[in-house]
Amino acid sequence: MNVEIFKQGTDNWGYILRNAQNKCLLLDPLDANLYEKKIRSLKLTPIAILLTHYHQDHIAGVPELLKKFSIPVLGPEDNEQTPEIVTDKVAGEIQLLENTIFCYTMPGHTRALNTYHFKKSKQLFVGDLLFNLGCGRVFEGTHEQHYASLQHLKELPIDTEIFVGHDYREKNLNFAKKLDPNFYSALQLEDLQESTSLEMELWWNPFLKAPSFEAWKRLRDLRDQS
Ligand SMILES: [Fe+2]
C-alpha cells in the first residue's frame, strides 16, 4: 500500500493508505478538513475508515468525514468502550482493497486497541501502542495487558514497517539519552524516520529492550513522571 503520512493536530500522525487504483483507507482521522483536502487533491475514493482506538485525537474527524463519504467505520471489538461511530467491530482477518488485513487486539493503552497488519506489504499501523523509541501510556487498560501486547508485537517479522500514532521522536530520544547516554550517543534525531521498523525498535527502543515486566514497568513509571 502507498501511505500518505501527514501531521494533524499537535503531534498526531495522519494516514491515508491508497492502492494503485486510487482507492483508499483513512486511518485515525482527527482533522476531517485535512483528510478531505488530501482526498480531493489526490483524486482518491475512500473505501473505509480504520480506527486503532477510541481516544478523541484518533476519531474526532469521523462524524464530519461521514457527512461527505458514505463508508463503513472499522474499529476494535469492545462491548463497552468502542465508540458508537464504529459500524464494523473487527478482529482477525478482514478483506479490503485486495488485501488481507490482520487486525490484532493489543490492549493496554486503552481497553480496546487494534493494530492493522498488511502482511503482503509488511506494514503495521499501531496507533498509540508503540512510538519511535517509546510506547503508549497506560490509560484504561492495565500494565500487564500493555506489556503482553508489546511482546506480541516483538514476534512479528523484523522487517515490518511500523506507523505510529504520534510524533514523539525528539522527546523519546531525549528520554533515552538520559537513561543511557553512552549507548544512545550513536543515535541522532535525523536518524529517526517518520515510520520506523521492528528491527530498528528492537535495537533502540528501551521499552522493547526491557528484560522483564518489572523492568518495563519501572521504565514506564519513569517516563510518565518525566
Ligand atoms: Fe491514545
Summarize the structure.
The protein is of the alpha/beta class and 226 residues long.
Explained architecture:
The chain has helices spanning 32-41, 56-59, 62-68, 143-154, 169-179, 181-184, 198-204, 206-209, 213-225, and strands at residues 2-8, 12-18, 23-27, 45-50, 73-76, 88-90, 92-96, 99-105, 114-118, 123-127, 130-131, 134-135, 161-164, 196-197. A hairpin with a 3-residue loop joins β1 and β2. The chain is 32% helix and 28% strand. The chain has nine helices and 14 strands. The protein has one domain (2-81, 89-225): Ribonuclease Z/Hydroxyacylglutathione hydrolase-like (Metallo-beta-lactamase, Chain A, 4-Layer Sandwich). Strands 1-2-3-4-5-6 form a six-stranded mixed β-sheet, covered by helices on one side. A six-stranded mixed β-sheet has the order 7-8-9-10-13-14. A two-stranded antiparallel ribbon has the order 11-12. It has 226 residues and is an alpha/beta fold. It binds fe (ii) ion.
